[in-house]
Amino acid sequence: YNPDVVVITGDLVDSSVKNLRNAVWNLKNFKSKYGTFYVTGNHEYYTNDVDNWLNYLRDQLGLITLHNQHHVIREGNASLCVAGIDDIQAEKMSYTDHSPDPVTATEGCPDDTPIIMLAHQPKAAKLTIKSLPRVDLVLSGHTHGGQFFPVHIPVYLANPYFAGLYKVSADTHVYVSRGLRFYGAPTRFLSYPEFTSVYLVSSQP
User: Fold this and answer.
1) Would you give the distance in Å from CA 2 to the centre of its chain?
2) 184: left (phi over 0), alpha (psi -120 to 50) or beta
3) Are 189 and 149 in contact (CB under 8 A)?
4) In the chain, which residue ranges form alpha helices assigned H by DSSP?
């Protein structure tokens, strides 16, 4: 399996670089044609070490960290803009230099280039679509698909997108991954873990 791109949409860690640097080292071995892209989730902000994580993942493991930034992938005459925003938890925790900003993240994306936005929480996906109607696909996570019953119910009610694929408009989709692990209780029920493969097909002949 040789993907063109690997993306990590946050909640990778919940402690400091000092404590978990060895636990994430194998991310260095991820292989893809254009690289591994990463944005923060709410748990990175709980660590109080988010800037060190961004630096470590970028400088030591070679990930492309998107801190309200984008990266343009080019293949012949075609291009794709992969953008990413900070998690909305940053604002709640008073990080002065972190907050989700879809407009800043996509400044410089060519006008005729499709945009994929990485935004950890579905609420950030909704923010992205509201402030940036031209986005083509938003990739999110956070909900764990409810993780286990009856937690599904409040998680479903609290988020604009719960799990799976949503067609928001003729040109815009949101995909919410259920993720690979869990939060709190080490269990899942009626919510399977997933490693998602996304295939993009050109509308041009």
Assistant:
1) 20
2) left
3) yes
4) 17-20, 42-46, 50-59, 89-92, 102-106, 122-131, 152-158
- Are 90 and 98 spatial neighbours (Cβ–Cβ below 8 Å)? yes
Strand ranges inside the chain, DSSP E: 6-8, 36-38, 64-65, 69-75, 78-84, 115-118, 137-140, 164-167, 173-176
Q: Are strands 115-118 and 137-140 parallel, antiparallel or unpaired?
A: parallel
Neighbours of 69 (CB within 10 A): 19
Instruction: Write down the pTM of the prediction.
Output: 0.91
Read off the pLDDT of residues 94-110 as tens digits, 9 standing for 90 and up. 888 899 999 999 999 99
Stated as kind and residue range, the H or E segment containing 123 is helix 122-131
Phi, psi of 65 (to 5 degrees): -85, 130
Residues β-bridged to residue 186 = none
Contacts of 36 by beta carbon, 8 Å cutoff, 6+ apart: 5, 6, 7, 8, 27, 30, 62, 63, 64
Percent of residues in the chain assigned helix, strand, coil, to nearest 5: 25, 20, 55
Residue 51, SS3 per DSSP: helix
The residue behind tokens 């630096």 is 55
State pLDDT tens for residues 125-142: 999 999 988 899 999 988
